[in-house]
Amino acid sequence: EIVLTQSPGTLSLSPGDRATLSCRASQSLSSTYLAWYQQKFGQAPRLLIYGTSSRATGIPDRFSGSGSGTDFTLTISRLEPEDFAVYYCHQYGRSPFTFGPGTKVDIK
Amino acid sequence: QVQLQGSGPGLVKPSETLSLTCAVSGYSISSGFHWGWIRQSPGKGLEWIGNVYHTGTSPYYNPSFESRVTISGDTSKNQFSLKLTSVTAADTAIYYCARWGSGWSFETWGQGTLVTVSS
Q1: Which candidate in A30, A48, A49, A99 is best for mutational testing of the B interface (most B CBs within 10 A)?
Q2: Which of A21, A20, A18, A15 is nearest to A107 (CA)?
Q3: Which of B60, B104, B110 sits opposite A95 (nearest CB)?
Q4: pLDDT tens per residue across span A17-50
Q5: Helices (H), strands (E): how many in chain A?
Q6: Is the pLDDT higher at B29 or at B55?
Q7: How far apart are CA B70 and CA B40, in angstroms?
Q8: Contact assignment for A97 to B96 by CB distance below 8 Å
Q9: pLDDT recorded at residue B55
């Protein structure tokens, strides 16, 4: 099973700041099969990024993804008030599909 | 657009079977994609349980659940279902149904169903 580790656990930032979230895999992944989700309290996760760097439909371009091998990054260029949430990375290239434990982005 | 609506009992007794259904609207499940279940609990986070093909057959499961889980699809009713046997308190979670594509993974999710295992 591929274990995903996310850091930091919590990121305290202000609106307008840049957020950099990290996801590390226990084994090398094909970049085709790495996704990022955003989850707000009481809601289902929402797909932001798939294939490491492709934005899902309707996702603003302040969200970007990068990485390869075992290290992947989600960047939010300028935080908007609605971006404060929990973010999960997810690999779907090898069964069982797995999710990271999440990074909470909260308001400083 | 496609919408997924999960339903089922919110309370299940230990050792019994958890049964949930996901009704799909705005898209015919037989047209494509795979259809899956994911759960979320404070202790274990997000866990993929398994998927079923658009034909409603050929399920594939997370080995952690394989001995207890059945996922099937009913194309005539445009829905798919989850059965998890011999539940314990550790199976208490929010259960999500979702549409899965090989390029995008889980790209549309249902609202989630909270299932509590308790006597």
Answers
A1: A99
A2: A15
A3: B60
A4: 999 999 999 999 998 999 999 999 999 999 999 9
A5: 0, 10
A6: B29
A7: 18
A8: no
A9: 85
